[in-house]
């Protein structure tokens, strides 16, 4: 049986999670400010990773006991929501990692149960992970996304050279993982990499992605890291 419908305050970008909640019948409200969250049963922070902590600080004076607070950043665990949990919020970190798989980290068993129900209603699979495990997963996801972008670019180039359909069906426009990492998330993910070989490959991929997508900021960052 479907669970109770909620007013969900949304902070940040569109995402697969928003689409799932809308499909379940929840009322999604794009919040103009953190103060507007007081009328919501749940709040979702769907900003780039670098902005999550600031959003938590803004929400702290307004959150109330029993509110559900979710952030969608793969690179951060549930601990970043501690200031809201202290106020009585149910804290959850829910990140989409591809297909119907979601990484979930929560503050307690009650929050875990709610997160699982929200995803189960849409036929999704919950993968419980710790904060430490999320930190390790984040750069691998970012790298997989960047390599996929490079593969699509290579297929397009080959198609031009051969003047025929060299792009496998669904490859050019297909998504490997969602949501796609923004530039600041790539920087954050890189900071947690300890393996020297992976660090080198990650930077090379980021520089090339910046080059083919005319993202000068990312390209220059890659060049600078390669010279370190």
Automatic annotation (TrEMBL):
InterPro entries: CGL2689-like_C (IPR054507), NAD(P)-bd_dom_sf (IPR036291), OxRdtase/DH_put_Rossmann_dom (IPR019665). Residues 130-225 form the CGL2689-like C-terminal domain. Residues 36-94 form the Putative oxidoreductase/dehydrogenase Rossmann-like domain. It holds the Pfam family Rossmann-like. This is Oxidoreductase/dehydrogenase Rossmann-like domain-containing protein. It comes from Corynebacterium casei LMG S-19264. The lineage of its organism: Bacteria, Bacillati, Actinomycetota, Actinomycetes, Mycobacteriales.
């Amino acid at each position: 049986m479907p669970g109770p419908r909620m007013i969900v305050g949304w902070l940040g970008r569109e995402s697969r999670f928003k689409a799932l909640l809308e499909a379940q019948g929840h009322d999604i409200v794009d919040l103009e400010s953190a103060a507007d969250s007081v009328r919501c049963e749940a709040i979702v922070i769907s900003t780039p990773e670098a902005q999550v902590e600031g959003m938590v600080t803004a929400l702290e004076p307004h959150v109330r006991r029993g509110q559900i607070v979710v952030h969608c950043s793969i690179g951060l665990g549930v601990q970043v929501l501690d200031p809201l949990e202290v106020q009585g919020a149910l804290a959850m970190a829910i990140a989409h990692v591809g297909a119907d798989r979601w990484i979930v980290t929560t503050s307690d068993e009650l929050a875990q149960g709610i997160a699982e129900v929200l995803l189960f209603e849409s036929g999704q699979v919950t993968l419980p992970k710790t904060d430490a495990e999320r930190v390790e997963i984040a750069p691998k996801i970012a790298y997989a996304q960047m390599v996929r972008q490079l593969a699509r670019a290579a297929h397009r180039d080959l198609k031009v050279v051969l003047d025929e359909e060299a792009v496998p069906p669904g490859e050019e426009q297909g998504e490997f993982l969602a949501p796609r990492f923004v530039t600041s998330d790539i920087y954050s993910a890189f900071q947690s990499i300890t393996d020297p070989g992976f660090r080198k490959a990650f930077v090379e991929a980021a520089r090339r992605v910046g080059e083919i997508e005319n993202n000068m900021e990312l390209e220059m960052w890659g060049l600078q890291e390669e010279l370190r």
